[in-house]
Each structure stands twice: as C-alpha cells, then as structure tokens.
Specification:
TIM Barrel, eight-stranded parallel sheet, alpha/beta, single chain, 9 helices
C-alpha cells in the first residue's frame, strides 16, 4: 500500500501528458479510481494523497466500503452492470452511475433517488463493439433512450460510457473511442440533449487514446491499485 501515492502521481502525469498532447487542459479529465476488490484502507490511502472519486462494480462490496469510509467525502461512482433489484441501494448511495443501458433501470433509479439528494448523475453505457459478453445500448437505439432518460426527474443525464474490446494498437484504440465522441456529438445536436458533457472511457492500457478522443473521465484500476484480489 506504500506505493499507492506513487501510482497516483504516475497516473496523473500520464493524464497530464495525454491532455496536453491533445491540446486539452488536464483539468478537463477526471480520474476515477476503480476500487473493486480493493480494501477500504487502500481507498483511504489514496484519498489522503488527493484522490476523491472512486468507482465500484459490485454493490454489496461498495456499500460495505462506504460504511467503513463514511468519514470521508468521497464521490462514489457505480460502474458495473445493474440488476433491477439493486437500483434502490444504488440510487440512495451513489453520486454517479455510468452503466445505464435500459429505460427500466433509469426509471427505477429516478423513482428511488432520495428527494433530499441532488439528482443522480448518469451516463448511458454504449456497446460500441456489439460484444455479447458486455452490457450496453446499441448505437442505433441510443438516441431514443437518451431522449427518454433526459426527461426523467431526479436524474441528470450527463453523457456516455463505453468499454471497447481490447486493442493493442494506439490507432485502433483511438478509432474505437472516436466512435463514442461522434455519438455524443450527434446527441448534442438534438433538442434537450445539448448539455451532455461527459465521456467516460479509457482504462489503464488505453487512457492516452481515450483522452485524445475527448474523454472527460478515465477509469483506472490496475495501474493505480495494482493487481486486484480474488
């Protein structure tokens, strides 16, 4: 755990370099520490080093960590697949949800978001490679879903998220992420969707390409925390 602050500094340096290479300000890119299968104390160490946003995939694990870290003003992001029976706890306990891909889930999150909390920030997950093993809305039906979700109370539709199929080549990575950039630009041209401002894309192995394509949030696990537990 002693290496965590150094890992954080290294990731921030990569983000800074990638943003500047793309003609962007590093301040435009938020680092989400993907903390699934990592202990609460690792999150506490990174928080002390200045990291504020953490992403979790598994609800019960996340809720346990939130209890253990209740003294810290962490910004919690849910980034995993969402089952209908988990929406209430997600709506009550998170600041962001990156993985909305069905209207039913969005409606439940809207209905179950506590009225004393700010609207829940949501991104629509897009399955840009049509992978059967991954969640996400088909690009061809994205516009209809975005319009429906944008009209729901207690939610703030912020943008899009994607997890492209792994690609080793930078040019291939950039081409994949550019698909999501084009999709959000197309949505911004529609009535009621002009304020979309978030592209959640890029992980440890491809954050540079994601930032070059316009990512505003990158989700980093392995290079930040090291190998996950089992």
């Amino acid at each position: 755990m002693n290496n965590l602050p150094e890992n954080l500094a290294s990731i921030r340096a990569r983000i800074d370099a990638a943003a500047r290479a793309a003609g962007r300000s590093p301040d435009e890119v938020t680092l989400i520490g993907v903390s699934k299968r990592q202990p609460a104390e690792a999150i506490r160490t990174l928080f002390a080093a200045g990291q504020r946003a953490f992403g979790e995939n598994y609800l019960q694990e996340a809720l346990d960590k939130q209890t253990a870290l209740a003294d810290l003003p962490i910004e919690w992001h849910f980034i995993g697949p969402i089952q209908s029976n988990k929406t209430r706890s997600i709506a009550e306990s998170f600041d962001w949800v990156h993985s909305v891909d069905r209207l039913k889930i969005a409606q439940r999150l809207s209905e179950q978001r506590p009225t004393d909390r700010a609207p829940l920030n949501v991104c629509l997950q897009v399955n840009i490679d049509a992978e059967a093993s991954k969640s996400g809305v088909d690009p061809d039906t994205l516009e209809a879903l975005a319009s429906q979700v944008a009209d729901l109370p207690r939610l703030a539709l912020r943008g899009l998220m994607a997890i492209p199929a792994p690609r080793a080549d930078y040019a291939d990575q950039l081409a994949a992420f550019s698909q999501l950039q084009r999709l959000i630009e197309r949505l911004r041209a529609k009535r009621g969707l002009q304020s979309l401002d978030t592209l959640s894309m890029g992980m440890s192995g491809d954050l540079e390409a994601a930032i070059a394509a316009g990512a505003t949030m990158v989700r980093i696990g392995t290079d930040l925390f090291g190998a996950r537990g089992v």
